[in-house]
Design goal:
mainly alpha
Length: 335
C-alpha cells in the first residue's frame, strides 16, 4: 500500500533549528578555544613576562586609534555597499544600507556566511526584493573586497623590503576570483559548468545563479568600479596601517608595506581555510609571517591577538549592537 506524504510532527521540526544552532555554537567555541590555546601555549613557551610587557606598552589612546582605523574600514565599505545597492536599483537610503551592512557583522563567525543571508532577508522584508535579485549585491561586495586586498598585497610585494612568502599566488588567485565574480558572462559560464558537473541537479538553484549573473551588468560602469575600488583599498589599507602602528608601538622594527602585506595575506589565508571569520588560519599565518620577517615571538603573539580583537571581534561587537535595530526596522517594514 502506498504511503501518503505526512509532515513531521511540530515538536520534531521545532527541534531542528535549535540543534543546528547548538552545533554552530560548539563549532565556533571550539575554534576560538583552539586559537586561544595555541596563542597561550606559544606565550608560555616564549615567556609570559616578555609577552605581558609588550601588551603593557600600549596606552588607551593607542587602542582607541586602532579601533578608529577599523571604523574607517567599516564605514568606507558600508558606503560602498550603499553605492552597489543604488546601482542595482534598490530603493534604500544610506542610513538603511549602513544598518544592514554593519548589522551583518554580528554573523561574521557563523558558518556559511550567514551575515550575507541576514542582510538579504532584511532587504526582502523592507523592499520586497527576493534573494535572487539581491544576490548580485552580495557577490559584487565580496568580489570588491578580494580585488582591493589583492591590489594591496601586490603593492606590498612591490614595496616591501622583505616580501611576503606566497603572496604573489594569493594575490593572483584573489584577482581572478574577483574578475570572474564581476563578469556576467563568466559567472553564467561558471554556473552552467557547475550545473553540468552536478548531473543537472538543482535546476532552480542554477536558474537563480543565471538570473543573478545577468544582474551583474548593473555594476559594469567604470565610474562605479573605480569608486568601489578606491573605497575598498582605502578601507583595508586603514586596518593594515593600524597593524603597522601596533607593531611599532610594541617595539617591532618592521616596514609599513611589510606589515600591510602580512595583515592582508593572513586575512586572505584565513578566508581560504573556510573557517568562520578565518579563525585559526589567519592567526597562524600572521604569527608565522611576523616571525619570518624578524619580529620577536614575544611581540608577534600579542600583536596578532590585539589586531584580531580590534578588527574581527570589534566588527562583531558593532554588529551585535546594530543587529537588533536592523531586525526591528525590517519587521516594521514587513507587510
Amino acid at each position: 500500500m502506498a504511503m501518503s506524504n505526512v509532515s513531521p510532527p511540530p515538536h520534531v521540526a521545532g527541534t531542528a533549528q535549535p540543534s543546528r544552532r547548538l552545533r554552530d555554537l560548539l563549532l565556533i567555541g571550539s575554534l576560538v578555544a583552539l586559537v586561544l590555546a595555541g596563542l597561550i601555549g606559544l606565550a608560555v613557551a616564549t615567556g609570559w613576562q616578555e609577552t605581558i610587557a609588550a601588551v603593557r606598552n600600549l596606552s588607551i589612546i593607542e587602542i582607541i586609534a586602532l579601533l578608529a582605523l577599523s571604523l574607517v574600514n567599516y564605514g568606507l565599505r558600508g558606503v560602498r555597499w550603499h553605492l552597489f545597492a543604488n546601482r542595482l536599483g534598490l530603493p534604500t537610503g544610506l542610513t538603511q544600507d549602513l544598518r544592514h551592512f554593519l548589522g551583518g557583522f554580528a554573523m561574521s563567525v557563523t558558518p556559511g556566511r550567514i551575515g550575507e543571508l541576514v542582510r538579504m532577508r532584511w532587504l526582502q522584508r523592507e523592499t520586497g526584493w527576493p534573494f535572487d535579485k539581491t544576490a548580485p549585491l552580495v557577490l559584487v561586495d565580496r568580489a570588491s573586497d578580494l580585488a582591493a586586498m589583492a591590489i594591496l598585497l601586490a603593492l606590498a610585494l612591490a614595496f616591501s623590503t622583505t616580501g611576503v612568502a606566497g603572496g604573489a599566488p594569493v594575490a593572483i588567485l584573489a584577482l581572478i576570483a574577483a574578475f570572474i565574480a564581476t563578469r556576467p558572462r563568466l559567472m553564467r559560464a561558471a554556473g552552467d559548468a557547475s550545473h553540468v558537473a552536478s548531473a543537472r541537479r538543482f535546476p532552480r538553484l542554477f536558474a537563480r545563479v543565471r538570473r543573478a549573473a545577468k544582474s551583474l551588468t548593473a555594476f559594469q560602469g567604470p565610474t562605479v568600479l573605480l569608486a568601489a575600488g578606491a573605497l575598498g583599498v582605502i578601507g583595508w589599507l586603514a586596518e593594515g596601517w593600524a597593524f603597522h602602528l601596533l607593531l611599532v608601538w610594541m617595539g617591532a622594527e618592521i616596514g609599513f608595506w611589510t606589515a600591510v602585506g602580512i595583515f592582508v595575506f593572513a586575512t586572505l589565508a584565513g578566508g581560504l581555510t573556510g573557517a568562520p571569520g578565518g579563525l585559526g588560519g589567519a592567526e597562524a599565518a600572521m604569527v608565522a609571517l611576523l616571525v619570518g620577517s624578524g619580529t620577536p615571538l614575544e611581540i608577534a603573539l600579542p600583536a596578532t591577538l590585539i589586531i584580531r580583537l580590534t578588527t574581527l571581534w570589534f566588527a562583531i561587537a558593532i554588529g551585535l549592537l546594530v543587529f537588533p535595530l536592523a531586525e526591528r526596522h525590517s519587521k516594521m517594514s514587513t507587510p
